[in-house]
Amino acid sequence: MTLPPPGPAGDPVADLSALLGQLAGDPSDTAPPAAPPAAEPTEAEPVYRNVEAFVGDYFAHVVERRLASGPDSGLNWCPRWWAHPEAISRLYALWRAWETLRVSDPQTGMSIWWRDHLDPHLTALAAEYGPFTRCRPDKHTEPRPLPVEPAPPEVLAQLPDADAF
Fold first, then answer.
1. Which residue has the higher pLDDT, 74 or 29?
2. For the whole model, what pTM was predicted?
């Protein structure tokens, strides 16, 4: 990428336009675009930069459900979804599956995503005993981890991968 010359003589708007044109692959740019190596397939860029962008910019807008409010039935949802370990793991998985299926199967990938990914994960998230069960759209309740006791060494020794640890 060719940078504009530094100094007061340059027009900042023109300089910015030139840089943006180079980033966008403007044909008037004199530098040839870098070609990806022929041996390695190029990986498609994700539409959403991270799980937060996916939830805020896509998921929250396309998933239409009546939200639970008090004793009324509806979807249990927490505005602080990222504070629930199970929720962030499931929503991250949904995001990655969405990004993969839109590229790998542009014909039916989104149908598969809804049926095989979103529906089961959303059911689990919003279930009566799911991570959002004590939350409401206007209220977050801190998650409580499951109680765990250490496993006895003789139990761990019977596992097939016991020698790996």
1. 74
2. 0.66
